[in-house]
Amino acid sequence: MSTTTANLPKVFVTRRVPEDGINFLRNKCVLTQWDSDDAIPREELKKRVKDIDGLFCLLTEKIDAEILDCAGPSLRAVSTMSVGYDHVDFAECQKRNIPVGFTPDVLTSATAELTVALLLSVSRRIKEGINAVKDGSWGTWKPLWLCGQGLDGATVGIIGLGRIGFAVAKRLMPFGVGKMLYAEYEEKDYASQLPAEYVDLDKLLKESDFVLGCCALTKENTGLMNSAAFKKMKNSAIFINTSRGGLVNQDDLYQALKSGEILGAGLDVTSPEPLPTDHPLLTLDNCVVLPHIASATMKSRNAMSELCARNIIEALNGNIMPAQVK
Ligand code: DGY
What we know:
The structure is a single chain. The protein has a seven-stranded parallel sheet with strand order 8-7-6-9-10-11-12, sandwiched between helices. A five-stranded parallel sheet has the order 2-1-3-4-5. Helices cover 32% and strands 15% of the residues. The chain folds into two domains: 10-104 and 298-316, NAD(P)-binding Rossmann-like Domain (Rossmann fold); 108-289, Rossmann fold, CATH 3.40.50. With 326 residues, it is of the alpha/beta class. The mean pLDDT is 96. The protein is elongated, with a radius of gyration of 21 Å. It binds (2R)-2,3-dihydroxypropanoic acid (DGY). Residues 59, 82-84, 107, 295 line the site of (2R)-2,3-dihydroxypropanoic acid.
């Protein structure tokens, strides 16, 4: 924990975070920090937020009425070092006139890149290939062994054509994608820049060779990818999720993968996180699970940390945050 002595606003940072954010905050506030790489226990968070002016949090902290009550009326800015803010009770913050900041844009490239990597590792059966090399099951070259699905001519369906969905689509087009579909929502006229066609979710699920979860998690789409959705997908289709684990009913996904209803899945996000090591999904060859690393480049994480810090300082200075949830 570090503090300065000046009579400045108090900001609490809930974790060790990349230094650009901390450097930005230094000398602009009285800074205290949960000095650990692990998440702050809830009871500790409740104590540490008391009387602070600004809260720099992560997606691992649930910022709800209880935490806001513990902070008290001094709290004037909440900013999360993430683009997703489903862990922050935005309505409750609004009620109390506390602006909420997040970190869009600066992680878009990194997240899109990882989404493509995950898609390719599932579709080209990279995990099985690596395992075969290691465990000696790699025999002679075989024409029918480890054949996957290519992107050339494929139909890609994106659930949520926001910043990240668009960035993923742009990166996939050069692989020779035949058709790009999207469902649920579009931001900023992205579809015309691809081009991509709007379809309802049913059609997207039925027609896509690859279904990609790129949307923010909301109450409405929680559990959207359930057994009914997987049944609509082609048996040869692959599902990729880099949004939030809550989008998927994981028991249903397991059944769909096990029974061959869909061909494969790649998840960078699960529910819960970490996924218990004895989770059935981890027993499947046709499922690749990563530990929520889509935004994990040094460049992106530093930019997220700095933007999160800027959000707080701007709000404490009475300005609109550079990235404020609307
Ligand atoms: C986010 O920012 O919401 C990602 O899930 C982690 O970077």
